[in-house]
Specification:
Pfam families: MMPL. The chain is α+β, with helices and mostly antiparallel strands. About 60% of the residues lie in helices and about 5% in strands.
Length: about 725
């Protein structure tokens, strides 16, 4: 197994490095079944969408746009563009419109629409013609939705690579602090490297079968790295405990795999199914997270349950060799101290603790009620990025922004170019023009029974105001017998939010049902799954509230290095919920398993909780810290939405691993008492035959009998 793993790392690293070649271009955020996507499909022909996908801003500090040299350079760029690389190209020199000229007359832009209606195809064309826009002695900057997406990917890839370089040394340091031995610390790192390479291999395989979004994959790879470290930490720690208890190496490996490995399996299945729940959202970004996330997480579980036991067998009792002199030898926490005492203090006032923490975490989630949702765009990029500069210049120095267009495609009951149809279309355009927020609306083309009405606006395309405009536009009745569909950014955002709003309840239902089933199979209780779901929702509430407070309202914007945009990417809560919910299960199962181990022997619900917390709190905190370092490295990136992922997951981890596991779990378990392990008799009998019980416990002196309701102790 050891040799096989080495060969896999070498060969897989070479082959997996080509994963980027099978990933689709573009972010894939739009709802493919939404009205805007349908409209884009209708407008993809000769009628056209009449919106600029790319805006190239040309600037000269010495020449004005009226100088022949300026004109010659811009026209030379247009002449170089292949005819099949655009639907239309417009400049100041081709139109004569002053809309293309800045106030100081030292800037002008080229606006173009890329062919087709599929984002991935447009990205391919854009990347092919990108070098052709170079104009000697002129400074060019690229804006427009297609350019934003490519700049977003480029900056994200660069920053995430830097984050990985930073997080890996920190992981090494933290593992050395936790284990205080080079051998023990190296094992989780070995699994992390194996999973990092395996993730690339998996992504290349999956990317050849389904269309994956590059933007989603960046997140999945780092998640796999963090989970691998997390899972390996739990198993290595249990292996050392078993050796310290006097077991032989082989028995310790078997025992660690059967106990901590069981926790890893349960957690991995839950994380995988939770990420798989993203399949209910049809956008390519979220389905990519589903396909790739499930594959990478399962690979991390398989590596932890197969390769790691082989490494433990090789390491044997040498696992504590090569100790770090400055750190000394870790002394095991004495019975009845530390977390044990904390758990007992908490259980003395369980009602107060449960109510206090519930109210506090609920209050932290209140800002979520005022969230303004949108999609990521140039607002998420650094201020000096081309698309950000171009957007600002168009808003401040030009009378018209060619990207701020809503295209309306109207399907008439007959030909759209008859006098009667034209009159009806003009009337419809005038009614649309009267809606507040629309700057101008006019019929700009017809083809067969289709007509295109182009609407301009000056509002931010990402705020609530323009979405209200879209709702009013769609409510306006089209000509008799006709249908009208609205496309472009504001309409696409409305459709994306509708998609997320419709899919989120189903995702939460799937996640909750899976959590219930997995925990029931693991512990034979119907009470614990309900408690776990409620606690996880509290942690998520706090994380989402913190996201709104920090990123929408700008709290801590300075220290975190970003400008508050005033809204939140609507994909982030979905992604963070899928990740954090699954990770919380990791710690929950690990802690409950140790509590139940003691409970099966003693039948003392209070003492079992205290002992279980004492044996798991330190390692749960360490696991959360290690995973927090990996995911928290997102915070140092220059992309605001990546910072959102880092902050959201880290807050959820910190809340869950400290407040929830250290305080809320003991208090709630005290309130439940023996009923924490209860299930109805039919389910209890079914679980005895088909469940996933813990492995047989070591011999221990019998505890004195405890009188409890029969149904509460059947499990």
């Amino acid at each position: 197994m050891f040799v096989t793993a080495i060969l896999f790392v070498v060969l897989g690293g070479v082959w997996g490095s080509g994963a980027g070649g099978v990933l689709g271009g573009g972010a894939g955020l739009d709802n493919p079944h939404g009205e805007s996507s349908q409209a884009n499909s209708l407008l993809a022909g000769t009628l056209g969408r009449h919106v600029a996908d790319v805006v190239v801003m040309y600037e000269s500090p010495t020449m004005s746009v009226d100088d022949p040299g300026f004109k010659q350079r811009v026209e030379a760029v247009v002449a170089k563009l292949p005819k099949d690389s655009y639907e239309w190209v417009e400049t100041y020199y081709s139109t004569g419109s002053t809309d293309f000229v800045s106030e100081d007359r030292h800037k002008t832009y080229l606006a173009m629409q890329l062919p087709g209606a599929v984002e991935e195809e447009q990205v391919v064309v854009y990347n092919q013609i990108l070098p052709l826009f170079d104009a000697p002695d002129l400074t060019e900057r690229f804006g427009g939705l297609t350019a934003v997406g490519q700049q977003f990917n480029a900056i994200s890839n660069r920053d995430l690579a830097r984050a990985e370089l930073l997080s890996f040394p920190l992981l090494i340091i933290l593992l050395l602090v936790v284990f205080r031995s080079l051998i023990a610390a190296s094992l989780p790192l070995a699994i992390a490297i194996l999973v990092a390479v395996g993730s690339l291999v998996v992504l290349r395989i999956v990317g050849g079968l389904v269309d994956l979004s590059t933007a989603a994959i960046n997140v999945v790879v780092i998640l796999g790295l963090g989970l691998a470290t997390d899972y390996a930490l739990l198993i290595v720690n249990r292996f050392r405990e078993e050796l310290a208890a006097g077991r032989e190496v082989e028995d310790a490996v078997v025992r660690a795999t059967a106990t901590a490995g069981r926790t890893v399996a349960v957690s991995g299945i839950t994380v995988a199914v939770t990420l798989g729940g993203l399949i209910v959202f049809p956008s390519r970004f979220l389905t990519s997270l589903a396909y790739a996330g499930v594959s990478v997480v399962l690979f991390a579980v398989i590596a932890a349950l197969t390769v790691l036991p082989a490494l433990l067998s090789v390491a044997g009792r040498r696992i504590d060799s090569l100790r770090i002199p400055l750190l000394g030898r870790r002394r095991p926490e004495a019975e009845g101290t530390g977390w044990y005492r904390t758990a007992h203090r908490v259980m003395r006032r369980p009602v107060t603790v449960v109510l206090g923490i519930t109210l506090a975490l609920g209050a932290l989630g209140v800002p979520l009620l005022g969230a303004v949702w949108t999609r990521p765009a140039e607002w998420a990029l650094p201020a000096d990025t081309d698309s950000v500069v171009v957007t600002r210049q168009l808003a401040e120095e030009f009378p018209y922004d060619p990207t701020k267009v809503i295209s309306t495609v109207v399907r008439m009951p007959g030909p759209a170019d008859t006098p009667e149809a034209k009159a009806q279309l003009d009337d419809f355009a005038q009614r649309l023009d009267r809606i507040e927020g629309v700057d101008r609306a006019e019929v700009t083309g017809t083809e067969g029974d289709l007509a295109r009405i182009t609407l301009g606006y000056s509002l931010s395309p990402y705020g609530q105001e323009i979405r209200d405009v879209v709702v009013k536009l769609r409510a306006e009745p089209p000509p008799p017998g006709a249908t009208a569909l609205f496309a472009n950014r504001p309409a696409a955002i409305v459709d994306m939010l509708t998609m997320i709003g419709n899919g989120l309840p189903w995702m939460l239902l799937i996640t909750s049902v899976v959590t219930f089933v997995v925990l029931f199979l693991a512990f034979g209780s119907v009470t614990l799954p309900i408690k776990t779901v409620l606690m996880n929702l509290l942690s998520l509430s706090a994380a989402f509230g913190a996201m709104v407070l920090i990123f929408q309202d700008g709290f801590l914007a300075g220290p975190l290095g970003f400008t508050a945009p005033g809204f939140i990417d609507a994909n982030m809560p979905v992604m963070i919920a899928a990740i954090a919910f699954g990770l919380a299960m990791d710690y929950e199962v690990f802690m409950l398993a140790r509590i139940r181990e003691h409970y099966l022997v003693s039948r003392d619900p209070v003492e079992s909780v205290a002992v279980g917390v004492q044996h798991t709190a330190r390692i749960v905190t360490a696991a959360a810290l290690l995973l927090g370092v990996v995911v928290g490295a997102f915070v140092i990136t220059n992309v605001t939405v990546l910072k959102m992922i880092g902050v959201g997951v880290v807050v959820a981890l910190v809340v869950d691993a400290t407040i929830v596991r250290g305080l809320l779990v003991p208090a709630s378990m005290k309130l439940l008492g023996h009923w924490a392990w209860w299930s109805p008799r039919p389910l209890a009998r079914w679980w005895e035959r088909h469940g996933m019980p813990e492995p047989e416990q070591s011999a221990a002196p019998p505890a004195p009998p405890v009188h409890v309701p029969d149904t509460a102790v059947r499990n």
